[in-house]
Amino acid sequence: MEAKGHGGDEEDDKDVWMSVWVHDVDEMHKHCVAAGLEVTCPPTDMPWNVREMHLRHPDGHVSRVSRGFEPEK
Predict the structure, then answer these.
(1) pTM for the full predicted model
(2) What's the CA gap between 41 and 19, in Å, rounded?
(3) What is the mean pLDDT of residues 41-50?
(4) What CATH number belongs to 18-67?
């Protein structure tokens, strides 16, 4: 099964993905950018009620950094 990214990186993301749940995805994004990490998808509200960003490790594996949210009514 292939994992498909959301930031235009679908061709490269063919490995197993791991999700890491955090309290603040946007704050984590700031830290990752400052550290020079490769963010392949910036913080985005996904249709499955999760705000997430995607990071690529130098070995090519992608991690999702996520936080759930309540849908707007």
Answers:
(1) 0.73
(2) 14
(3) 96
(4) 3.30.720.110
